Amino acid sequence: MVGDVVLGLPALHLLQSHGHSLQLYGKGWAGALLAGEGWACTKRAGPFGERIAQLKALRSACASQDPGFNDRTNTLLMPNSFSSAFEMRWAGLKPAGYARDGRRLLLRQAWQPDPPNHALEGFWGLACRLTGHTGAPPDRIQLRIRPEDQAAADALLAGHGIQPGFVCIVPFAAGDVDGLDKRWPDFPAFTHRLSTLGRQIVTCPGPGEESIARDQHPAALSLPDVGLGTYLGLLHRASLVISNDTGPAHMAAAVGTRVLSVLGPTKPEQWRPWGPQNTIVQGTRPAWPTVEAVMQATHTLLNA
Fold this sequence. Notes:
- The chain is α/β, with parallel strands linked by helices.
- It has 2 domains: 130 residues, Glycogen Phosphorylase B (Rossmann fold), CATH 3.40.50; 156 residues, Glycogen Phosphorylase B (Rossmann fold, 3-Layer(aba) Sandwich).
- 40% of the residues lie in helices and 14% in strands.
- It is built from 13 helices and 13 strands.
- The protein has a 6-stranded parallel sheet with strand order 10-9-6-11-12-13, sandwiched between helices. A 3-stranded parallel sheet has the order 3-4-5, sandwiched between helices. A two-stranded parallel ribbon has the order 1-2.
- The radius of gyration is 21 Å and the shape is globular.
């Protein structure tokens, strides 16, 4: 998921700082999200056989550049799934990762996970174990944006007459937490209240979310079909991002924008946006906060 990739960035930066040349392998959208970092990113194929062929090709390419590649741990698994370890082993790679999901015997190095903590700290712990680093993770993520993606975002905003000081809302979220919806049910009422503050409001629905933006948030300018790179640039320009527990909240935090995270069943100690500029409003978990509570936090942040 987008949020997991963003929260894994400090770990990737740590690996790079220790001299590792990164070859990333994952979902197709990851390349656009991480384009500003300049890392090679292979889009994971669909069928199992094609994935194995991809991984074997990557192994061969890496071994041709590094004669010792096949003699040591050469893959770090960020996901905790059995399938990720199985595919790497089947392709002849030697992965390291957390000993979860019954995959210990598939790992060249299997580490016991730390007690439950923030997801970013879990990813950071993987990189620390591989490099021997002992420091704490950085207090912010600092995701780089490609200049051309920022230029595309600026052109999009200018074309719609959006001025500095606008607010971006993210009233969408996929999945659930312990069977409970991650979408704040009072978000439509809040957007109506927000529109009275005189700020322009922007939202970027993904595929299938256009009707939510149109029908439930008419006060917001809807910009559908925005690519992830352009979306990063747009989030970077926002004065405030108000969001459910979803990937764009982590994206916004990673580019240094203030985020007001509206949470219900989500555990903030595990999934809050990372960074000192972020604020959480939550009722008594799993209850949602009131519209008034979120409005008060919004006033505070916009007038800070």
